[in-house]
Specification:
Length: 641
Amino acid sequence: MTAELVRGQNHTLPQTRLEIRISAGAPVVAGATLGDEHGTVHGVERIAHPGSPQLPGLEVSRQAAADHRLAVDLDALPDGVYRVTVLLALPLEAGGPIRFGAVAAPFVAVTGLDGDEIATFTLTGLDTESAVAALELYRRQGGWKVRAVGQGYAGGLAAMLADQGVDRAAELAGSIQAAVARGMARSVSPPPPRTPEGDRVRHAAGPAPAPGGGQPPVRPPAAQQPEPPAAVPSGPIDYAHPRRQSAAPPPPRPAAPPAAPGQPAQPVAGDATGWSMDERLYNQIWGMFEDLARATAAYRSAVDFAESRMDQELAQTLSDPRSRIGGAGDRAREQARAKRDELTGRAREALDRDLAQLAAESAVVEPALPAPYAGWDNPVWHAYRVPMEIPMALRIGDLHLPESTALRIPLLVRLPLERGIWIDSGRTASEAAAPTDSDQLHRLAMESAVLHAARLLAVYPADEFSVHVIDPAGSAAAALAPLVRSGVLAGPPASGPGGVSSVLAQLTRRVDLVQMAIRAGAADSLPPDLDPAEQLLIVNDFPHGFDDRAVTQLRYLADEGPSVGVHLLMVADREDASAFGPVLDPLWRSLLRITPVADDHLADPWVGHAWTYEPLRTPPGSGVLELVLAQVAAARRTGPR
């Protein structure tokens, strides 16, 4: 049965030798790019286009045409290829259309070599775009899938290639258009003949993936990878490990158990690309995040389409006065609603299948997570030992969508922190915060800050992370008690104008000295009293107790601190800072806002869903926080200074 895809929806490919058939209302240029595990296209030799139509495992047309056939052999693709993106562009010919909105919607079908359709996609909704990424074939848990993309580019072919990390994209786009203009015309040759055994001859030799050992899909569409979600999509994700060594090959990935015929591959923790298990788990979690975002987007798009189609059919029925009375109108309404229900039911079935697969993957991934990625209820914390090196990321909460509240995706941020964190203690932070007493909400915010600080202390080696606290009125003594009792703070919480001024002066001096040392190339000539460890400043109840000078210093630390190892963790209600006017707007924008209660303000970088953020909590009655802090304190007492 053919899968009729909508934008964002995916479908499993039952075979690896395929044809991609393209039909458009005007001549278009067809091509394809081969991306690595990060979605980056490394050079022109990984791009098939009319001027260079053949690559191992891939062949495209040499000319612009209204109909194309692309031949694909996924088993024969070069090593390191994890995504094949099919591209369409309008030729730059005089008198031709300059935007896809002026031509009929292109139709793309993925078929087997016998011509049977596996999946189809109609690229609707295009307007000013002159190039579009139509669909992608990507690895997922030992097999391949197809995803309907439909991402258009008003900047044309050059913008699309640049988005995939191609160097000198504008020059390459010009050469492709020139090849089309020169009329280098030859359609794709038919698929190679069958052998006596009935199989087709490969275009080029290439290793077949081991059973169950495939890669997950390469997710973000750009060469630069997105940071964790922010209040608005903050751009593409960086999958690169900060300490990755390129001299050695990555260790083998875990093999998935063989799947039953016709069933998806069994999920395996760490079944992703990476040079360590931590990196593979990190990439796998981001892959699950993207899969859930796109699967939900496909479901919502299908529901919207079904509603729109029903409205159109009802409007058409009611436009005829004869159908407004009698049984004809009632039957038309029932038929329209029945069709709507059928379409939405099919969309929900597809979503439920994707959710079931992701839930199964989450069930094996969550228990395998190392402490920095794990929730406080994970038994890994009971076996905690102070690490010898910094992990690549830290979990700061969970994310979920309304369609799948039980499926939680860990929210990971890269280390070292690239920007500070603001825990919003305002009552307008979310629907859950509005009915909460303001004192209780502030207490929850400070408790959340303490848990985040404890996690950061726990995942850094001994003496490589220091925590300072500014509590101007001393109102957070109860929440700060675990940090104070364990002795892991760099000093007692600072209070009063003098304490606030002293801590801010110490940290701004550190930023100034490190910046000057770096600019002078004398990073080993810092004063002996300067603490070389990463610094975290917890600020409670901002802006109460802060004068103009202190506010200026905080803005300076937020802007300049992260690059030299000084980070902010602020607990504040933005409305309380309204007296400062717009002067603090740059400060708020520079911080990652999270909440002490559930809130749906975070957006993913792919389709922009509003995700509900759930803060991490220790289990009721658990002593895991005290256990971890005690080990950190003991390691600091015994470790070298």
